[in-house]
Automatic annotation (TrEMBL):
<feature type="coiled-coil region">
    <location>
        <begin position="31"/>
        <end position="63"/>
    </location>
</feature>
<keyword id="KW-0732">Signal</keyword>
<keyword id="KW-0175">Coiled coil</keyword>
<protein>
    <submittedName>
        <fullName>Uncharacterized protein</fullName>
    </submittedName>
</protein>
<feature type="signal peptide">
    <location>
        <begin position="1"/>
        <end position="24"/>
    </location>
</feature>
Amino acid sequence: MIKKFSILILSLAMVLSFGFSTSAAPKNQKENTAAQEKANKEVEVKKAEIQEVMRQLSEYRTRKLLNARKQDGSLGTQNDISSNLVDDRYEMELEAKLNALGVKKLTQSEAEAIYSQSNSDEVSAMVTVPNSNANVKWYEIRYSHYKNNQSYDLQDLYAQGIGYNTNLSVARDGATLYTNKQIAINNLKEVGSIYVEKFVGAAFSLVPLVGWAPWELFFQDNTNVTNNSHVISYGSLSTICFTYVKLAGKDDSWQKLSFVSNTFSIAAGHTLRGIKNGLPFTHSKDTNNTVYAENYSSGYKAVDSYLNTSTQRSSFARYFRFYNHDKTANITAYVLNPSVPTQITIN
């Protein structure tokens, strides 16, 4: 509940920030009316709700895949695990919430019918949906956005990884972060962390996502605990948002793919081995985290890019990195940063 509330507050703050930054139009352009600004903010609040439900779906699916690998006992059978996992009741409930928010789940024929044409010479709007939805699901939502007293029709196309056999997924089992370190846990403020490389401002920067205190990966009582090794099995599922823009009232052949951004969820199983009170111990802990690119799914950025192709056309988080306590050891995983939907594939 705290995570959900924080994400909604952050999203609302971003909405207000965008609203103020776009309120001053050049003298030869008309400013949005108060009603148009209100409509823009209402759309962004709704999209924040959609992002929250999609986050829940993505985190649940990453946990589900990680647990399936643990139960299978053979980490080399990801193909079978991926193809045999079907939507359960919880996933269907979340998809029903998406539908209630105006999000439509697309079939292959629906996607091809919608995105088969474009008059844009810059970016093709064509979409090829995989024959099977066992690994990727496609969703869309349509909405309006106002800028300089002009209405634009936007269409967000979401591709969400749900299985391993797609380039929307990265996974690794039994990756050693460190071994034979002899680390006294109760002397540390942090035993591990995740950093993410994002495009922030005008350059890529490595920013912290989460840091784990000793009791978050070990026990409440960490006295007399010395850790010798930290091994991680992880999986990540990405959701890519392709935002198309056109003048209000035009048909889809006039739309342009104007902004692409990503988010991804990470499920990780941590296995820590060491000594507690002079005796060997092994302790396991699972974590789940979600990363958002700056301006993820931003209608404001998409319209700016549509009007001026020299502006930013994409925003990505490029990789995530696990660190040990003093950042002398790390494990890095790169995620997909596509420019068009056809770059999303199944294996």
